[in-house]
Amino acid sequence: MSRSIWQTINKPVIGLSPMDGITDTAFRAVVDHIGHPDVLYTEFISADGLIRNKDLLRMANSHETTTPLVGQLFGKDPIAMQEAAAMLIEQSSVSGIDINMGCPNRRVVGHGGGAGLIKTPKLAKEIIQSVSKAVKMAKRPIGLSLKTRIGYDSVQTIPWISTLLEAEPEVIAVHGRTLIQMYSGKADWNEIGLAVQLAQKTNTRVLGNGDIDTHEDALLKIKQFSPYGVLIGRASYGNPWIFTTDIPTRIDRIDAAIFHCNLFLRYMPSHNPLSLRKHLGWYIKGFTNARELRLQIMNLQTVKDALLLFEHIRKQQTSP
Prior knowledge:
Oligomer: single chain
Number of helices: 13
Distance between the termini: 61 Å
Helix content: 40-55%
């Protein structure tokens, strides 16, 4: 029997975490080309939405790459999650399905999805089991994983992770915060380490996630807490080099912004170009004239305008 990506992937894993509004096709392509992470995730995709509107499959579009892409789904209906997973498997190039059980967005949680599933452990297990059916029926090897937090309004690592382990996903990525913390405070890596211990006698592996700021820090967290690997999220904003030991110059960052714009045109021509603004603002973080440049970026209306601006910035940086 063929092995899934979680069995064949480079270890320890240092991957790009799924992030709503961030890990679109163009951003994933930039990170992949420059940083070469071990795995990429899509933004979360609504299972109910995908079933109603197949156009959402575009969120799982991929650039040409050998890096595994995992499609992340959210929802609270086991049947819908199974159907949506089957659609992604059959109609996209994803190598894995991930179940979102960690998103703290009020809209998602209010409907019982994302981290809201921490309050309904029985339903969470049913969802994993349903998606597992779609994975097992696939005509090619597909990985099954989920991403979650250490609790809802308080730390519940032992009962919550133990419940998830009963459903036997291949991988659980654990963000070291509760839902109520959102992204405030510090991620608790001791609790991530506890999740690793709970999974030791199972076939499930644990990825750690939260507050990894450098490549060196990723390696340290792997050594101390999460030997299977880690996922990096917010520290990748404007910084695809975090998956490497490279230290980018200003020209490197400007070139990456230009590259990002061109990839947006190539892979996301029908998308709202205003979604690029935040990414472009991150590339110039720390520049002496960053405030002035950020104001110009916020006024950009087209990708062509963005390219002209960054080509001008590049000329300024390289002129004597």
